[in-house]
Specification:
Layout lengths: L14 E4 L5 H13 L13 H10 L6 H20 L5 E5 L5 H4 L2 H4 L3 E6 L2 H14 L4 E6 L25 E6 L9 H16 L2 E11 L4 H7 L6 H17 L8 E8 L4 E8 L3 E6 L4 E6 L4 E8 L3 H10 L3 E7 L5 E7 L1
Parallel strand pairs: 1-4, 2-3, 2-5, 3-4, 5-6
Antiparallel strand pairs: 6-13, 7-8, 8-11, 9-10, 12-13
Bound molecules: S-adenosylmethionine.
The site of S-adenosylmethionine has 18 residues, from helix 2.
Length: 343
Protein backbone atom coordinates (compact mmCIF):
# COMPACT_ATOMS: atom_id res chain seq x y z
CA UNK A 1 0.00 0.00 0.00
CA UNK A 2 1.47 3.34 -1.00
CA UNK A 3 0.36 6.59 0.59
CA UNK A 4 -3.10 5.93 2.05
CA UNK A 5 -3.97 9.59 2.43
CA UNK A 6 -2.87 10.68 -1.07
CA UNK A 7 -5.22 13.48 -2.07
CA UNK A 8 -4.90 12.66 -5.78
CA UNK A 9 -6.45 9.20 -5.34
CA UNK A 10 -10.14 9.08 -6.13
CA UNK A 11 -12.23 7.84 -3.20
CA UNK A 12 -13.56 4.32 -3.60
CA UNK A 13 -16.82 3.03 -2.27
CA UNK A 14 -16.12 0.30 0.29
CA UNK A 15 -17.41 -3.11 -0.73
CA UNK A 16 -19.97 -4.53 1.68
CA UNK A 17 -20.78 -8.16 2.47
CA UNK A 18 -23.99 -8.62 4.41
CA UNK A 19 -24.12 -11.86 6.40
CA UNK A 20 -26.22 -10.49 9.23
CA UNK A 21 -29.52 -10.92 7.42
CA UNK A 22 -31.88 -9.91 10.20
CA UNK A 23 -33.37 -13.41 10.38
CA UNK A 24 -36.12 -11.72 12.30
CA UNK A 25 -37.81 -14.94 13.45
CA UNK A 26 -34.56 -16.36 14.88
CA UNK A 27 -33.63 -13.06 16.52
CA UNK A 28 -37.11 -12.75 18.02
CA UNK A 29 -37.05 -16.37 19.32
CA UNK A 30 -33.64 -15.82 20.92
CA UNK A 31 -34.75 -12.62 22.64
CA UNK A 32 -38.05 -14.06 23.86
CA UNK A 33 -36.35 -17.21 25.22
CA UNK A 34 -34.11 -14.92 27.28
CA UNK A 35 -37.00 -12.75 28.49
CA UNK A 36 -39.00 -15.81 29.59
CA UNK A 37 -36.09 -17.47 31.42
CA UNK A 38 -36.49 -17.60 35.22
CA UNK A 39 -33.56 -15.13 35.49
CA UNK A 40 -34.24 -12.99 32.41
CA UNK A 41 -31.26 -12.17 30.17
CA UNK A 42 -30.33 -10.82 26.75
CA UNK A 43 -27.11 -11.03 24.74
CA UNK A 44 -24.95 -7.87 24.86
CA UNK A 45 -24.92 -7.86 21.04
CA UNK A 46 -28.44 -6.33 21.19
CA UNK A 47 -27.03 -3.23 22.90
CA UNK A 48 -25.76 -2.19 19.45
CA UNK A 49 -28.34 -0.70 17.16
CA UNK A 50 -27.39 2.54 15.36
CA UNK A 51 -28.12 4.65 18.46
CA UNK A 52 -26.42 2.10 20.76
CA UNK A 53 -23.25 2.36 18.65
CA UNK A 54 -23.31 6.16 18.97
CA UNK A 55 -23.90 5.93 22.72
CA UNK A 56 -20.95 3.56 23.00
CA UNK A 57 -18.79 6.13 21.20
CA UNK A 58 -19.90 8.69 23.81
CA UNK A 59 -19.02 6.26 26.64
CA UNK A 60 -15.44 6.07 25.36
CA UNK A 61 -15.12 9.85 25.96
CA UNK A 62 -16.22 9.69 29.61
CA UNK A 63 -13.64 10.36 32.33
CA UNK A 64 -14.72 7.20 34.19
CA UNK A 65 -14.27 4.95 31.13
CA UNK A 66 -10.55 4.18 31.44
CA UNK A 67 -10.34 1.24 28.93
CA UNK A 68 -10.30 3.28 25.70
CA UNK A 69 -7.72 5.85 26.76
CA UNK A 70 -5.57 3.25 28.58
CA UNK A 71 -5.53 0.98 25.54
CA UNK A 72 -4.74 3.96 23.27
CA UNK A 73 -1.82 4.91 25.54
CA UNK A 74 -0.42 1.36 25.29
CA UNK A 75 -0.59 1.52 21.49
CA UNK A 76 1.06 4.94 21.46
CA UNK A 77 3.86 3.91 23.84
CA UNK A 78 4.68 0.60 22.13
CA UNK A 79 3.92 1.33 18.48
CA UNK A 80 7.48 0.65 17.21
CA UNK A 81 7.75 -2.65 19.14
CA UNK A 82 4.34 -3.74 17.87
CA UNK A 83 5.13 -2.77 14.27
CA UNK A 84 8.31 -4.85 14.48
CA UNK A 85 6.28 -7.92 15.46
CA UNK A 86 3.33 -7.58 13.09
CA UNK A 87 3.46 -8.28 9.34
CA UNK A 88 3.13 -5.36 6.94
CA UNK A 89 0.95 -5.72 3.83
CA UNK A 90 -1.54 -7.83 5.80
CA UNK A 91 -5.31 -7.88 5.64
CA UNK A 92 -6.38 -6.11 8.82
CA UNK A 93 -9.66 -7.58 10.09
CA UNK A 94 -11.34 -5.36 12.69
CA UNK A 95 -13.75 -7.48 14.78
CA UNK A 96 -16.56 -5.33 16.20
CA UNK A 97 -15.10 -2.38 14.32
CA UNK A 98 -17.54 0.27 15.58
CA UNK A 99 -16.31 3.59 14.20
CA UNK A 100 -12.99 2.03 13.08
CA UNK A 101 -10.95 4.74 14.78
CA UNK A 102 -8.60 2.35 16.59
CA UNK A 103 -7.77 0.41 13.43
CA UNK A 104 -7.21 3.63 11.48
CA UNK A 105 -4.51 4.61 13.98
CA UNK A 106 -2.62 1.42 12.99
CA UNK A 107 -2.70 2.01 9.23
CA UNK A 108 0.50 4.03 9.08
CA UNK A 109 2.59 1.53 11.07
CA UNK A 110 1.11 -1.63 9.53
CA UNK A 111 0.61 -0.49 5.94
CA UNK A 112 -2.20 -3.04 5.48
CA UNK A 113 -3.13 -4.25 2.02
CA UNK A 114 -6.82 -4.30 2.90
CA UNK A 115 -9.03 -3.26 5.82
CA UNK A 116 -11.98 -5.55 6.62
CA UNK A 117 -14.38 -4.04 9.17
CA UNK A 118 -16.80 -6.52 10.77
CA UNK A 119 -19.78 -5.52 12.92
CA UNK A 120 -23.32 -6.54 13.81
CA UNK A 121 -24.45 -2.89 13.89
CA UNK A 122 -24.79 -2.79 10.12
CA UNK A 123 -26.20 0.69 9.50
CA UNK A 124 -23.61 2.29 11.74
CA UNK A 125 -20.81 0.25 10.12
CA UNK A 126 -21.82 1.35 6.60
CA UNK A 127 -21.82 4.99 7.68
CA UNK A 128 -18.53 4.77 9.60
CA UNK A 129 -16.72 2.83 6.87
CA UNK A 130 -17.74 5.31 4.17
CA UNK A 131 -16.13 8.03 6.32
CA UNK A 132 -12.94 5.99 6.80
CA UNK A 133 -12.75 5.38 3.04
CA UNK A 134 -12.89 9.14 2.39
CA UNK A 135 -10.05 9.54 4.91
CA UNK A 136 -7.94 6.76 3.33
CA UNK A 137 -8.99 6.74 -0.33
CA UNK A 138 -6.19 4.44 -1.54
CA UNK A 139 -6.82 1.61 0.91
CA UNK A 140 -9.05 -1.26 -0.18
CA UNK A 141 -11.86 -1.50 2.40
CA UNK A 142 -14.56 -4.13 2.89
CA UNK A 143 -17.43 -4.00 5.37
CA UNK A 144 -18.87 -7.25 6.70
CA UNK A 145 -22.21 -7.12 8.51
CA UNK A 146 -22.33 -10.25 10.64
CA UNK A 147 -22.98 -11.64 14.09
CA UNK A 148 -19.84 -13.52 15.14
CA UNK A 149 -21.12 -14.59 18.58
CA UNK A 150 -21.83 -18.15 17.38
CA UNK A 151 -19.52 -18.51 14.38
CA UNK A 152 -16.53 -16.50 13.17
CA UNK A 153 -16.75 -17.93 9.62
CA UNK A 154 -15.53 -14.84 7.75
CA UNK A 155 -16.76 -14.62 4.14
CA UNK A 156 -14.17 -15.51 1.46
CA UNK A 157 -15.25 -12.42 -0.56
CA UNK A 158 -13.65 -10.22 2.09
CA UNK A 159 -10.21 -11.64 1.25
CA UNK A 160 -10.46 -11.37 -2.54
CA UNK A 161 -8.82 -8.69 -4.57
CA UNK A 162 -11.46 -6.09 -5.43
CA UNK A 163 -10.58 -5.96 -9.13
CA UNK A 164 -9.32 -9.43 -10.10
CA UNK A 165 -11.58 -11.32 -7.65
CA UNK A 166 -8.74 -13.73 -6.77
CA UNK A 167 -7.83 -14.64 -3.18
CA UNK A 168 -5.15 -12.32 -1.81
CA UNK A 169 -3.09 -14.89 0.18
CA UNK A 170 -2.01 -12.08 2.51
CA UNK A 171 -1.34 -12.68 6.21
CA UNK A 172 -4.37 -11.88 8.32
CA UNK A 173 -4.11 -9.66 11.38
CA UNK A 174 -7.29 -10.04 13.40
CA UNK A 175 -7.79 -6.94 15.54
CA UNK A 176 -10.14 -7.27 18.53
CA UNK A 177 -9.65 -4.21 20.76
CA UNK A 178 -11.63 -2.66 23.60
CA UNK A 179 -11.76 -5.87 25.67
CA UNK A 180 -14.86 -6.98 23.75
CA UNK A 181 -13.55 -10.51 24.45
CA UNK A 182 -14.77 -9.82 28.02
CA UNK A 183 -18.37 -10.22 26.85
CA UNK A 184 -17.68 -13.95 26.56
CA UNK A 185 -17.51 -16.26 29.61
CA UNK A 186 -14.10 -17.98 29.78
CA UNK A 187 -15.22 -21.20 28.01
CA UNK A 188 -16.91 -19.16 25.26
CA UNK A 189 -13.82 -16.95 24.97
CA UNK A 190 -11.69 -20.05 24.40
CA UNK A 191 -14.07 -21.26 21.67
CA UNK A 192 -14.00 -17.80 20.05
CA UNK A 193 -10.18 -17.62 20.18
CA UNK A 194 -9.94 -21.08 18.57
CA UNK A 195 -12.04 -19.77 15.69
CA UNK A 196 -9.88 -16.63 15.51
CA UNK A 197 -6.79 -18.87 15.32
CA UNK A 198 -8.36 -20.86 12.46
CA UNK A 199 -9.26 -17.62 10.63
CA UNK A 200 -5.65 -16.35 10.93
CA UNK A 201 -4.29 -19.69 9.71
CA UNK A 202 -6.32 -19.35 6.49
CA UNK A 203 -4.18 -16.36 5.47
CA UNK A 204 -0.49 -16.16 4.56
CA UNK A 205 2.35 -16.77 7.04
CA UNK A 206 3.00 -14.26 9.81
CA UNK A 207 -0.62 -13.50 10.74
CA UNK A 208 -2.13 -13.47 14.20
CA UNK A 209 -4.43 -11.79 16.67
CA UNK A 210 -3.93 -8.32 18.17
CA UNK A 211 -6.30 -8.12 21.12
CA UNK A 212 -7.04 -5.69 23.96
CA UNK A 213 -7.93 -7.20 27.34
CA UNK A 214 -9.14 -5.45 30.48
CA UNK A 215 -7.36 -6.65 33.63
CA UNK A 216 -8.60 -7.29 37.18
CA UNK A 217 -8.51 -4.15 39.33
CA UNK A 218 -10.34 -2.72 42.34
CA UNK A 219 -14.13 -2.35 42.16
CA UNK A 220 -13.81 1.36 42.94
CA UNK A 221 -12.19 1.84 39.50
CA UNK A 222 -14.23 -0.74 37.61
CA UNK A 223 -17.75 0.17 38.72
CA UNK A 224 -17.81 3.89 37.76
CA UNK A 225 -16.61 2.91 34.26
CA UNK A 226 -19.93 1.10 33.83
CA UNK A 227 -22.10 3.52 35.83
CA UNK A 228 -20.91 7.05 34.99
CA UNK A 229 -22.14 10.20 36.68
CA UNK A 230 -23.59 11.62 33.45
CA UNK A 231 -25.77 8.55 32.89
CA UNK A 232 -24.51 7.73 29.37
CA UNK A 233 -23.98 4.04 30.19
CA UNK A 234 -27.46 3.96 31.74
CA UNK A 235 -28.85 5.36 28.46
CA UNK A 236 -26.81 2.80 26.48
CA UNK A 237 -28.26 -0.02 28.62
CA UNK A 238 -31.87 1.26 28.52
CA UNK A 239 -31.68 1.82 24.74
CA UNK A 240 -31.53 -1.98 24.52
CA UNK A 241 -35.23 -1.99 25.41
CA UNK A 242 -36.10 0.21 22.41
CA UNK A 243 -34.11 -2.18 20.22
CA UNK A 244 -35.96 -5.18 21.69
CA UNK A 245 -39.31 -3.42 21.12
CA UNK A 246 -38.42 -2.96 17.44
CA UNK A 247 -37.18 -6.55 17.03
CA UNK A 248 -40.02 -8.31 18.87
CA UNK A 249 -42.98 -5.90 18.98
CA UNK A 250 -42.70 -5.79 22.81
CA UNK A 251 -43.96 -2.79 24.80
CA UNK A 252 -41.08 -2.07 27.21
CA UNK A 253 -41.36 1.44 28.69
CA UNK A 254 -37.84 2.71 29.24
CA UNK A 255 -38.76 4.85 32.26
CA UNK A 256 -39.83 1.70 34.15
CA UNK A 257 -36.25 0.40 34.24
CA UNK A 258 -33.20 1.34 36.25
CA UNK A 259 -29.59 0.75 35.13
CA UNK A 260 -27.59 -1.42 37.55
CA UNK A 261 -23.87 -2.22 37.20
CA UNK A 262 -21.60 -3.90 39.75
CA UNK A 263 -18.41 -5.94 40.01
CA UNK A 264 -18.98 -9.61 40.76
CA UNK A 265 -15.56 -10.44 42.24
CA UNK A 266 -16.25 -14.19 42.50
CA UNK A 267 -16.83 -14.35 38.71
CA UNK A 268 -14.27 -11.62 37.93
CA UNK A 269 -16.80 -9.70 35.85
CA UNK A 270 -18.76 -6.48 35.68
CA UNK A 271 -22.46 -7.25 35.32
CA UNK A 272 -24.97 -4.88 33.79
CA UNK A 273 -28.67 -5.33 34.46
CA UNK A 274 -31.94 -3.48 33.97
CA UNK A 275 -34.08 -3.52 37.11
CA UNK A 276 -37.87 -3.05 37.19
CA UNK A 277 -38.72 0.00 39.31
CA UNK A 278 -42.17 -1.42 40.17
CA UNK A 279 -44.26 -4.55 39.46
CA UNK A 280 -45.01 -4.59 35.74
CA UNK A 281 -45.81 -6.77 32.73
CA UNK A 282 -44.17 -6.64 29.31
CA UNK A 283 -46.23 -7.90 26.35
CA UNK A 284 -45.42 -8.90 22.79
CA UNK A 285 -47.43 -10.50 19.96
CA UNK A 286 -47.17 -14.34 19.97
CA UNK A 287 -48.14 -16.83 17.24
CA UNK A 288 -51.70 -17.28 18.55
CA UNK A 289 -52.13 -14.61 21.21
CA UNK A 290 -50.31 -11.90 23.11
CA UNK A 291 -47.50 -13.23 25.36
CA UNK A 292 -46.29 -11.54 28.50
CA UNK A 293 -43.58 -11.63 31.14
CA UNK A 294 -44.35 -10.25 34.59
CA UNK A 295 -41.56 -8.66 36.60
CA UNK A 296 -41.67 -8.00 40.35
CA UNK A 297 -40.29 -4.70 41.64
CA UNK A 298 -36.50 -5.08 41.78
CA UNK A 299 -36.43 -8.03 39.37
CA UNK A 300 -33.70 -7.74 36.74
CA UNK A 301 -32.81 -8.50 33.15
CA UNK A 302 -29.10 -9.38 32.86
CA UNK A 303 -27.86 -7.48 29.80
CA UNK A 304 -24.05 -7.72 29.75
CA UNK A 305 -21.03 -9.34 31.36
CA UNK A 306 -17.58 -7.86 31.01
CA UNK A 307 -14.99 -10.33 32.30
CA UNK A 308 -11.70 -9.02 33.70
CA UNK A 309 -8.60 -11.15 33.27
CA UNK A 310 -5.23 -11.70 34.92
CA UNK A 311 -2.66 -11.23 32.13
CA UNK A 312 -1.06 -14.65 32.78
CA UNK A 313 -4.44 -16.41 32.57
CA UNK A 314 -5.27 -14.71 29.29
CA UNK A 315 -1.88 -15.67 27.88
CA UNK A 316 -2.64 -19.31 28.82
CA UNK A 317 -6.04 -19.00 27.11
CA UNK A 318 -4.39 -17.78 23.89
CA UNK A 319 -2.01 -20.73 23.95
CA UNK A 320 -4.86 -23.18 24.67
CA UNK A 321 -6.56 -21.76 21.57
CA UNK A 322 -3.52 -22.66 19.45
CA UNK A 323 -1.63 -19.34 19.34
CA UNK A 324 2.15 -19.32 19.79
CA UNK A 325 4.76 -16.61 20.40
CA UNK A 326 2.52 -14.34 22.43
CA UNK A 327 3.71 -10.85 23.35
CA UNK A 328 1.99 -8.56 25.83
CA UNK A 329 2.19 -4.82 26.49
CA UNK A 330 0.52 -3.13 29.48
CA UNK A 331 0.22 0.36 30.96
CA UNK A 332 2.26 1.34 34.03
CA UNK A 333 -0.67 0.73 36.41
CA UNK A 334 -1.35 -2.73 34.94
CA UNK A 335 -4.99 -1.87 34.16
CA UNK A 336 -5.13 -3.07 30.57
CA UNK A 337 -3.16 -5.38 28.28
CA UNK A 338 -2.63 -5.64 24.52
CA UNK A 339 -1.56 -9.09 23.29
CA UNK A 340 -0.06 -10.02 19.94
CA UNK A 341 -0.50 -13.75 19.40
CA UNK A 342 1.01 -15.38 16.29
CA UNK A 343 -1.10 -18.10 14.65
C1 LIG B 1 -17.41 -2.48 22.94
S1 LIG B 1 -17.72 -2.02 21.28
C2 LIG B 1 -16.05 -1.84 20.65
C3 LIG B 1 -15.95 -0.93 19.47
C4 LIG B 1 -14.50 -0.65 19.03
N1 LIG B 1 -13.89 -1.83 18.43
C5 LIG B 1 -13.68 -0.18 20.21
O1 LIG B 1 -12.84 -0.98 20.69
O2 LIG B 1 -13.87 0.93 20.66
C6 LIG B 1 -18.19 -3.57 20.60
C7 LIG B 1 -18.41 -3.56 19.08
O3 LIG B 1 -18.64 -4.90 18.64
C8 LIG B 1 -19.85 -4.97 17.91
N2 LIG B 1 -20.46 -6.27 18.25
C9 LIG B 1 -20.98 -6.65 19.44
N3 LIG B 1 -21.43 -7.92 19.38
C10 LIG B 1 -21.15 -8.36 18.12
C11 LIG B 1 -21.37 -9.59 17.46
N4 LIG B 1 -21.95 -10.63 18.09
N5 LIG B 1 -20.99 -9.72 16.16
C12 LIG B 1 -20.40 -8.65 15.51
N6 LIG B 1 -20.17 -7.45 16.10
C13 LIG B 1 -20.53 -7.31 17.39
C14 LIG B 1 -20.68 -3.80 18.38
O4 LIG B 1 -21.63 -3.39 17.42
C15 LIG B 1 -19.61 -2.75 18.65
O5 LIG B 1 -19.30 -1.99 17.53
Amino acid sequence: MADTTQAAVLPRTPRFVQLHHEDRAAVRDELIRGLLAPAAFTSPKYLYDALGSRLFDAITELPEYYPTRTEAAIFAAHAPAMAAQLPSGATLVDLGAGNGEKAARLFEALQPRRYVAVDISVDYLRHALAGRQRQFPALDMVGVGMDFSQSLALPAEAFRDGFSGSGDGAPRVLFYPGSSIGNFAPAEALAFLRQAHAACAQGGAGGGLLIGVDLVKPARILEPAYDDALGVTAAFNRNLLSHINRLTGADFRLADWRHVAFYNAAESRIEMHLEAREPLAVCWPGAASVQERRFAAGERIHTENSYKWQAADFDALLRAAGFRNTRVWTDAAGWFAVFWARS
